[in-house]
Design goal:
It contains no helices and twelve strands. With 154 residues, the chain is mainly β. The chain has a six-stranded mixed β-sheet, with no helix packed on it. The protein has a four-stranded antiparallel β-sheet with strand order 6-11-8-9, with no helix packed on it. The chain starts with 11 loop residues before the first strand and ends in a 14-residue tail after the last strand.
């Protein structure tokens, strides 16, 4: 949950999946912090907006069935993932497992991952619990975001 203040810009947490120089994947807890108080136009009151980036993108909605697991893989493109319902997990090759529910945010930037000693590459993800996970995914088409590191969006 993001605390809203009319004077101090908010900070919005997200998980950033990324690849180090050796090809191992990790998750870092980061924050979006470039919020500016502005109107969206017309007579709309000012609100806090972080105009993160301008790039070609695709938006898709996914419903992951109960028990679904996407075994070890890289994110197909740099992408923002926001669970809308249910719970979803992401596990990286460093052993970190993060579970995210509605409104939490993850950025998938592990496109340069390499297999570890067990042949695992990138991350695995799946549903948690007895309800499907509903996700909104914004895939970035611009290659400059491939392999983006934590802090790239601060």
């Amino acid at each position: 949950m993001v605390a809203i203040d009319s004077v101090q810009p908010p900070r919005m947490p997200y998980w950033h999946v990324w690849t180090d120089e050796a090809g191992a994947t990790h998750q870092s807890h980061c924050e979006l912090s470039a919020f500016r108080l502005e109107s969206m136009g017309g007579k709309a009151a000012a609100q806090w907006n972080d105009r993160l980036l301008t790039a070609a993108s695709s938006v898709l909605f996914s419903v992951l069935p109960v028990g679904w697991v996407g075994d070890w893989h890289e994110n197909p493109k740099p992408q923002w993932i926001v669970p809308l319902a249910g719970v979803w997990f992401v596990e990286t090759t460093d052993g970190t497992r993060v579970e995210m529910g509605p409104g939490e945010i993850s950025f998938g930037g592990d496109q340069r991952a390499r297999p570890d000693k067990n042949g695992c590459v990138g991350h695995r993800s799946g549903t948690v619990g007895d309800v499907p996970a509903v996700l909104m995914v914004v895939q970035l088409e611009d290659d400059r975001f491939i392999g983006a590191r934590p802090g790239a969006f601060s």
